[in-house]
Amino acid sequence: MSDSLPATVELRRDSTPVPYRDALAAMEIRNAAIAAGEARELIWLLEHPPVYTAGTSAVAAELLDPRFDVVKAGRGGRYTYHGPGQRIGYVLLDLRQRARDVRGYVHALEGWVIDTLGSFGVESWRAEGRIGIWTRDIDGREAKIGAIGVRIRRWVTMHGFSVNLSPELAHFGGIVPCGIEDYGVTSLARLGQDVSAAQWDEALLAHAPAFLARLDTPCP
Predict the structure, then answer these.
(1) How many domains does the structure of the chain reveal?
(2) Average confidence (pLDDT) over 180-190
(3) pLDDT confidence of residue 57
(4) Residues 6+ apart with CB under 8 A from 84
(5) Is residue 99 one of the residues assigned to a domain?
(6) What strand order describes the sheet that includes 51-54?
(7) Separation CA 86–CA 33 (nearest Å)
(8) Where are the alpha helices (DSSP H) in the chain?
(9) Is residue 69 part of a domain?
(10) Residue 93 sits in which domain range?
């Protein structure tokens, strides 16, 4: 559904896992090229081999069991797990061509994920004081189903979001996810939804025009 995006935005979809360090290096290069006016904006959908990533606010005590590679990500936030069964969206957009509103950008990104989860009958929401996307788990408690982490350099965005389709949830046990100890982590599979990466991508891209339209209006 690349036709749901304007011609100024390139869509890239990877079906095999991309090593995190390779993706990070590619984002750095693309960010600079977009800022210099030498490349189109990019929405990149992919997944990674198992990895723990450390944001700029990561606290060493929250790395409980470094059973996988640990990489400094340069994005905001704390520790996050990425791995197979989790769909990543890296979003590299030029906010100089849109509303220069960091809070509005993050709000729009969250809304894009929330809208897409709704396409599969999963209600989700933002939670005051807690980063990420939340839903009701099978035990009735709130649990995290998606993570948000962004970096903005030269008014060009980097990083983006991750959503748990069917990852091995035990792998989150090596960290305190995003520094939040009192809540669990869930997935679409745990909630009884069998959603492939291709199905997720199609639903996400169907909501892309609304997401991009939100970026033209500063957050109130």
Answers:
(1) 1
(2) 87
(3) 84
(4) 17, 47, 49, 50, 167, 168
(5) yes
(6) 70-72, 51-54, 79-82
(7) 28
(8) 20-35, 102-118, 197-206, 208-214
(9) yes
(10) 2-214
Tokens in use for 199?
């199905």
DSSP string across 112-174: HHHHHHHTTT--EEEETTEEEEEEE-TTSSEEEEEEEEEEEETTEEEEEEEEESS--GGGGGG
Name the CA dihedral angle for 13, 126, 57, 43, rounded to a multiple of 10 degrees.
20
Name the pLDDT band for 178 (thresholds 50, 70, 90): low
**Mean per-residue pLDDT, 42-59:** 93
- In CATH, what number is assigned to the domain containing residue 179? 3.30.930.10
Residue 28 in any domain: the answer is yes
Distance separating alpha carbons of residues 107 and 67, to the nearest angstrom:
33
Active-site residues: which are they? Answer: 178
**Residue 167 within a domain:** yes
Give the lowest-confidence range in 46-55, 99-108, 179-188. Answer: 179-188
User: Would residue 185 be called left, alpha or beta, if left means φ above 0 and alpha means ψ between -120 and 50 degrees?
Assistant: beta
